[in-house]
Design goal:
The structure is a single chain. The protein has 196 residues and is an all-alpha fold. The chain contains 9 helices and no strands. Helix 5 packs parallel to helix 8, helix 6 packs across helix 7 and helix 7 packs across helix 8. It is elongated and about 60 Å long. The mean pLDDT is 92.
């Protein structure tokens, strides 16, 4: 269509996602989003919706992108459960170490801001955290852990994973983050040995 500015929606959503991730929902203005995406405010509204709608789209994009990577890591759990959990944590460590991405986790950051968020945004963050626990629970049940152990480890590993993101934002070294992971995988290894 003549005169209409064309742009790649995926590129724009990634730029908006990184802006929200870097500064947080409350501290990201429409001017910040305009600078990050290269779109003027009216183009953002007409093409992507208001700030809340755009944030939800970015949160979904983030959860899908990293959720798919977590699912792939956990797919080997029935054969190699400890390796699968290490690779699950590896997804987070790789994201943390990527110099082109902000520190931390957009989902964890959103969860920490729940008291000041609109209910639908808060619900989406809670849902994303629930998906992570569910994918872990499914992987752990596949290795024949008792349901209660699978539930407990799913909660624990999800909590550790979110903590890694928060700790990285506070400047914790990769070595220290790996030590946290090693303690969790050691506990899981003991539970797996006790099962057999």
């Amino acid at each position: 269509m003549a005169g209409k500015k064309q742009f790649d929606v995926d590129v724009v959503l990634d730029a908006a996602m990184v802006q929200f991730w870097r500064a947080g929902y409350a501290d990201t203005s429409l001017d910040d989003l305009s600078r990050a995406t290269g779109l003027n405010r009216s183009s953002i509204y007409s093409s992507l919706g208001d700030k809340d709608s755009l944030y939800l789209r970015c949160l979904d994009r983030y959860a899908t992108r990293y959720g798919d990577s977590y699912d792939q890591a956990l797919s080997r759990a029935p054969e190699e459960p400890l390796r699968a959990i290490r690779e699950f944590f590896g997804v987070t460590l790789k994201r943390i170490a990527d110099p082109d991405l902000p520190d931390g986790c957009l989902v964890a950051q959103t969860a920490m801001a729940i008291p000041v968020l609109r209910p639908d945004i808060a619900a989406r963050a809670i849902e994303a955290l629930g998906f992570q626990r569910a994918r872990l629970r499914t992987a752990l049940k596949a290795v024949k852990l008792a349901d209660s152990d699978a539930d407990d480890f799913a909660v624990h590993i999800a909590a550790v994973n979110q903590s890694l993101a928060v700790m990285s934002r506070a400047g914790t070294s990769q070595e220290q983050l790996q030590a946290v992971i090693d303690i969790s995988t050691s506990a899981l290894s003991q539970a797996l040995r006790a099962r057999s």
